[in-house]
Design a protein that fits this description.
Helix content is 80%, strand content 0%. It is built from 9 helices and no strands. Helix 1 packs across helix 9, helix 2 crosses helix 5 and helix 4 crosses helix 5. The radius of gyration is 21 Å and the shape is flat. The model has no long low-confidence stretch (mean pLDDT 89).
Length: 221
């Protein structure tokens, strides 16, 4: 195979990687905000629970978490995995990625929320704006602006982390590249995969840069 044929041969794996990427983002970004709010709750047991959750998710390998999610039905309900099918394999990957990345996004959000001066809440209270409206209308847009660089870094990392799906047997792009490299006895499939990962990250960085410019209205003077 020549280089362009290898790029085409990676298309199925690329589709899987793209699906993991977008579904993980769609789930982990809002879930991270909920976890963040739980972590900042004034109800101590709730705050402690989410603090422990974040600690465990950030302190253990993502690959290990994928194994835990994948084998959970067997150990909890004695359901044999051969009956779960390929749908469960993909679902387990998405669940594992989303739960892991939500913990990281939660801490990024928490840092952004904590950086907003408390005086803004007090000013909104004087104006008769409820605390919930203050948070969603005034505080949250500023938080997104402040945390965007850190979120971008995590999103770029996610592009590369999609390759970890191979751990429980899902054939994404990097696994497909390894299969082709073994078949062709060549490093060229790895080079093709590296180029695709680079272009993918380049596109992500470009989109995030565009969003950052659009949010300049919330720039902190």
């Amino acid at each position: 195979m020549n280089f362009f044929e290898l790029l085409w041969a990676l298309r199925d794996g690329l589709i899987i990687s793209v699906e993991i990427f977008f579904l993980t983002l769609a789930l982990s970004l809002p879930l991270g905000l909920l976890i963040c709010l739980g972590r900042m709750s004034k109800i101590k047991p709730i705050a402690w629970f989410f603090k422990l959750y974040i600690s465990v998710m950030r302190g253990t390998p993502l690959m290990l978490q994928l194994f835990v999610v994948y084998f959970l039905p067997y150990y909890l309900f004695s359901v044999k995995l051969k009956y779960m099918g390929d749908n469960w394999l993909f679902t387990a990957v998405i669940a594992g990625f989303a739960l892991n990345y939500a913990a990281y996004f939660a801490e990024i959000y928490r840092g952004g929320i904590s950086s907003v001066p408390e005086g803004q809440y007090e000013a909104a209270k004087v104006l008769g704006i409820s605390r919930s409206k203050t948070f969603f209308i005034i505080i949250l847009p500023q938080v997104f602006k402040r945390v965007l660089p850190a979120v971008t870094n995590e999103i770029i990392t996610l592009v590369k982390d999609t390759s970890l799906a191979f751990a429980i047997g899902l054939i994404e792009m990097f696994t497909r590249a390894k299969q082709l490299a073994s078949k062709e006895v060549s490093m060229l499939p790895y080079a093709a995969a590296a180029l695709i990962y680079y272009l993918f990250n380049l596109a992500v960085a470009g989109v995030m840069s565009f969003i950052e410019k659009k949010m300049n209205r919330y720039r902190i003077k």
